[in-house]
Design goal:
This protein is mainly alpha-helical. The protein folds into two domains: about 60 residues; about 45 residues, no CATH class. Helix content is about 40%, strand content about 10%. It contains four helices and four strands, in the order ααββααββ. Strands 1-2 form a two-stranded antiparallel sheet. The protein has a two-stranded antiparallel sheet with strand order 3-4. Strand 3 and strand 4 form a beta hairpin. The longest helix is centred in the first third of the chain and has 21 residues. The termini are far apart.
């Protein structure tokens, strides 16, 4: 359908360009020809015709699957969505080393930051 509409639009523009050329309006005719060349035809996407599961004689096989990709575009908005209950809490993972480094550099201890407890621990390191 889209291809047919684009073809008709292109024919209409070409006819107008021919009429403009006949009237001696070369500039208008050239403009209409360019417009006719730029008519966009949306590609037709055909769904896969491969069966969901295909088995081979040697015992192997191919399984077609569809999936989604999720990209975090704004961390703050995503965190707000978690707080508001629109996203699950499991959708976020803290990098403890980054938090540890920040707290050390900033001198943060105890419950100075809501939701985080910082305590000093002692240990030994053997080399």
């Amino acid at each position: 359908m889209a291809a047919e509409a684009a073809r008709k639009e292109q024919e209409k523009l070409l006819a107008r360009a021919a009429a403009a050329e006949a009237k001696g309006k070369a500039g208008k005719a050239e403009e209409l020809l360019e417009q006719a060349e730029e008519v966009y035809v949306a590609p037709v996407v055909i769904a896969s015709t491969v069966e969901k599961n295909t088995k081979f004689e040697n015992g192997g096989g191919i399984t077609a699957k569809k999936d989604i990709r999720v990209t975090v575009t704004d961390i703050r908005l995503a965190l707000q969505s978690i707080v508001q209950g629109k996203l699950p809490l499991g959708g976020v993972e803290f990098k403890m080393q980054s938090l540890k480094t920040y707290c050390k550099i900033s001198g943060i201890k105890g419950n100075a930051i809501p939701g985080i407890f910082v305590e000093e621990v002692s240990g030994i390191m053997i080399r």
